[in-house]
Design a protein that fits this description.
The complex is a heterodimer of chains A (321) and B (337).
Chain A lengths: L1 H28 L4 H6 L5 H11 L5 H13 L13 H36 L4 H15 L2 H15 L15 H31 L2 H8 L4 H38 L5 H10 L3 H29 L1 H16 L1
Chain B lengths: L3 E13 L4 E13 L3 E5 L6 H9 L7 E10 L2 E2 L5 H7 L4 E4 L13 H12 L5 H14 L16 H13 L5 E5 L7 H18 L2 E6 L2 H7 L2 E6 L2 E7 H6 L5 H8 L39 H5 L4 E4 L2 E4 L8 E2 L11
Parallel strand pairs in B: 3-8, 3-9, 6-7, 7-8
Antiparallel strand pairs in B: 1-2, 1-4, 4-5, 9-10, 10-12, 11-12, 11-13
Helix pairs in contact in B: 3-4, 3-5, 5-6
The chains are: A mainly alpha (321), B alpha/beta (337).
Organism (chain B): Sedimentibacter hydroxybenzoicus DSM 7310
Pfam families (chain B): ABC_tran, oligo_HPY
Membrane topology (chain B): Peripheral membrane protein
Chain lengths: 321, 337
């Protein structure tokens, strides 16, 4: 198992390097001169040249890319062109907000989505089931940013209960997280409910559930001990995919609620052609997605022992050859 | 009467689907005595499994219903028992060996735990150590080593899985075992092993058994009595001699035997029964077998035959109205039998 985890972590390296190359190339070859954007359109040609020389913008693309990679290997993400501060420090400031929001959203999704899905399946076609499904369908269909704006109108402007935007880090309370978390998790919870429900329905009609009932197990035991684990497999996939969506979606949520997170930083740095900063953000997002995917795969093995033997067999076969 | 463990009277079971009502069991009468093995034989779709599921009250929820009839288990009417009390009956008093060992075990739980669960649910006074010892013992009984209890179902072969399923059913030493085609999914060599093992266990634990099968060879070797089922009814019933050696049989039974290759006779072809089982949503009037029957008479299309008895042998067919005794006239099968 340890071998497998190591292998997966090592595979992540070329993936991230590939991503850096693509992003670096896009930032480099798209129109717009970084020096002009930094200094403004009324800057003199001399000062522009000086800045270009300082940022080594005149070197060929590959030279600059390799220089960046070497820095990256040393753990140096570079200096922001725009702010003249280290990228790593700025990222460290932003990461807690982004990861925090994702964690809140996933937590809400798990503690609401899975139980609702189970109850819906067990009480199939009941009023509760219909209501849950209706709300879930509504939440998947409504664009969440629109929903977020509506919630802001209602709860922030009209009722004045919840703040609409995030203040500077010192003044953040739990109230500030309510609307962003809701916006992030509404969609995800809905899809979790639907996946859990449909898998549960399939599992509770299976032969081994009948076997469990024939042993005299009560409904609660049948559902929690026998069915849930088998029904959770696809739900784990959904959670993994959703976490990735969250990372990408952070860009929108953070804009809407003015959260100073990685997504917001990414947008502003792309706008200003702040290449080191944008690269830092992308590397962070790519790494998180890679790690979450690995965790999801490990969770599969934990949930379904059958997969474990598959990994072992693969490794054994490779060792032989 | 008093040695009867299970008695089913006039059982009707329906499956209600969106557009149809499936009449799976239609007025079935059956009894099982203590320590006896009853073979329940019939084609696919004749309602054998439905009968077994009705006894455990495990018909698919919201689809399968017992619409009429009584199932007496000892002195309890199972059709009137609450779900909570049924839970105490299932697994401890009556347990079932399911048809398909491949899908009947939970893929995410170790087989030892799956066997232990039965004890955990019913033998509340057993300690962990006692339960684990009992699991080892029951695994040994079904011919598996105790190391196998730490395996997951996918690590076992089909035959081993079926042994685990049997071990599961026997864990609490039930009074009645419902074996639903326990060997159908296995190849022939394993079939013989599993059957002889079940036979030994049954003797040892003095369990009654309903052996559901469509294999008459299995019936001949393992059963004390045989009931032949067609379209949700028992159409012929008797002890093993009545079915295999008596002169008179229900035309359907003759058809069943005609479908087995007989090595002692020279025939070019088998003589299977023509036609298919009637559509259970739309059963024919009269005797359910008449559309396929070679000896059909006009009366068969009109009214359902009564069961006719001769000693222990029952045939439900108009042909034997005079040869055998109809119930209610001079009913000669003693309750003593």
């Amino acid at each position: 198992m340890v071998r497998y985890i190591l292998k997966r972590l090592i595979i992540m390296i070329p993936i991230i390097v590939g991503i850096t190359l693509i992003v670096f190339a896009i930032l480099n070859y798209t129109p717009g001169d970084a020096a002009t954007l930094i200094l403004g359109f009324d800057a003199t040609e001399a000062s522009l040249d000086a800045l270009r020389a300082k940022l080594k913008l005149d070197d060929p693309f590959m030279v600059r890319y390799v220089r960046y990679l070497v820095g990256l290997l040393k753990g140096d993400l570079g200096i922001s062109w725009r702010h003249n501060t280290p990228v790593a420090a700025e990222l460290m400031n932003r990461i807690p907000n982004t990861l925090g929001l994702a964690a809140y959203a996933v937590t809400v999704m798990l503690i609401l989505g899975i139980p609702m899905g189970i109850i819906s399946a067990v009480r199939q076609y009941s009023l509760l089931d219909h209501t849950t499904l209706f709300i879930a369908l509504l939440m998947t269909s409504i664009p969440t940013f629109w929903l977020a704006l509506m919630m802001m109108l209602k709860f922030s402007l009209e009722l004045g209960i919840l703040p609409a935007t995030m203040p500077t880090s010192a003044a953040i309370t739990w109230k500030h997280w309510v609307l962003p978390t809701f916006m992030c998790s509404a969609n995800l919870t809905a899809s979790t409910v639907r996946t859990t429900r449909s898998n549960m329905l399939e599992v509770i009609r299976s032969d081994y559930i009948r076997t469990a009932k024939s042993k005299g197990a009560g409904q609660f035991r049948v559902i929690m001990y026998h069915a849930l684990r088998n029904a959770l497999m696809p739900v784990v996939t959904i959670v993994g995919i959703n976490f990735n969506v969250l990372m990408g979606g952070a860009v929108i949520t953070e804009q809407v609620f003015n959260i100073s997170g990685v997504g917001n930083l990414l947008i502003s740095s792309v706008r200003t052609k702040d290449a080191p900063m944008a690269m830092g953000c992308i590397i962070f997002i790519a790494t998180v997605i890679g790690i979450v995917n690995l965790l999801v795969d490990l969770l599969y093995v934990f949930i379904n022992p059958r997969l474990k033997s598959m990994y072992v067999r693969n490794n054994a076969a490779k060792e032989e050859s | 009467m008093y040695d009867k463990l299970l008695e089913i009277n006039n059982l009707h079971v329906n499956y209600k689907t969106a557009d149809d009502v499936v009449y799976a069991v239609n007025g079935l009468n059956l009894s099982v005595r203590k320590g006896e093995t009853l073979g329940l034989v019939g084609e696919t779709g004749s309602g054998k499994t439905t009968v077994a599921l009705s006894i455990l009250k495990l018909l698919p929820e919201k689809i399968g219903f017992i619409s009429n009839g009584r199932i007496w288990f000892e002195s309890v009417d199972i059709t009137k028992t609450s779900e909570k009390e049924m839970r105490r009956v299932r697994g401890e008093q009556i347990s079932m060996i399911f048809q398909d060992p491949m899908t009947s075990l939970n893929p995410t739980i170790r087989v030892g735990e799956q066997i232990a669960e039965n004890l955990l649910l019913h033998k509340k006074d057993m300690t962990k150590k006692q339960i684990s010892d009992r699991v080892d013992e029951i695994l040994r009984l079904v011919g598996l080593t105790k190391e196998k209890k730490n395996d997951f179902p996918h690590q076992l072969s089909g035959g081993m899985k079926q042994r685990v399923v049997i071990a599961l059913a026997l864990a609490c030493e039930p009074k009645l075992l419902l074996a639903d085609e326990p060997t159908t999914a296995l190849d022939v060599t394993i079939q013989a092993q599993v059957l002889s093992m079940m036979h030994k266990l049954k003797e040892k634990l003095d369990t009654s058994m309903i052996l559901i099968t469509h294999d008459l060879g299995v019936v001949a070797n393992n059963c004390d009595r045989v009931a032949i089922m067609y379209a949700g009814q028992i159409i012929e019933e008797g002890n093993i001699r009545d079915i295999f050696t008596a002169k008179h049989h229900h035309p359907y039974t003759l058809g069943l035997f005609g479908s087995i290759p007989d090595m002692s006779k020279k025939t070019r072809r088998l003589a299977p029964i023509d036609g298919m089982m009637p559509d259970p949503t739309n059963l024919p009037d009269g005797c359910h077998f008449w559309p396929r029957c070679t000896d059909r008479m006009d009366v068969c299309k009109m009214c359902e035959p009564n069961p006719c008895y001769k000693d222990t042998h029952m045939i439900k067919c108009h042909l034997y109205k005079d040869l055998y005794n109809e119930r209610g006239k001079d009913y000669i099968v003693g309750k003593d039998e």
